[in-house]
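Q: What structure does this chain adopt?
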Amino acid sequence: MDPNPPKLGLIAGGGQIPALIRDVCQAEGRPLFIAALNGFCEPENVGDAEHDWFDLPQVGRLLKALKAAGVQQVCLCGRVSKPDFSALKPDWRGAMLLPKLIKAALIGDDALLRVVTDTFEGEGFHVVGVDALMQGLLVREQVYSARQPTEQQAGDIKLAMAAARDLGIADHGQAAVAAHGIVVGLEDDAGTDALLLRMTSRPEVRGGVLAKCVKPQQDRRVDLPTIGVTTIENAAAAGLSGIAVEAGAALIVDAAATAAAADRLGLFLIGQRHGG
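A:
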């Protein structure tokens, strides 16, 4: 381990991942500043770390705070939903960036995030991915659950993986649902949980599978597909038989708890390479 690691600026959205990275940094003695995003990051995930709170459009204030804190590396992590741009009240720097963000958002999330990462790098920060900080969060090529997919379910996994891949190429999402040889659901801007919620009202989905994979063209330092206990619970509520996630290109939050949830609810959970 580097005896003098560069100070990390954690741009923290919702979910558990910011807290996991905070704990690793504190355990390793790595200097850390958390830029917690109002409306997304939970206060308990900040804890006693050096931090401040920011609204999404406060770009100038955020960049100034990162520099004042001596941050050298930046990691974007946690859930952040696409904002209503018309309702934002940006500072001067945010207002300058807003037209570029709106144009990118019309293309897709990957285009939007590229504008964000380019902005940080243009200010001299080095952007790092969650997986670079916590290799243990990467999905492995293995069956996590006691249950394994049947031959028919393996066919549905292949279909759903291909559909998710095509969706990603179009920069529209990272997940798809297939059931009984047919693709029945595709992720949109609302995310995976919303996709699964839509599936609960469709009886033909029962016994199907959810697949999540990375967008082929995306910058893998940001927005890797992520699953956790909630994903398992929502898939079970939709009547699905299991979940397949792209190994080496997605994150699993608390693998032991997620696998235990799959076993408790009777689902399979598998990490596999695309095309596997």
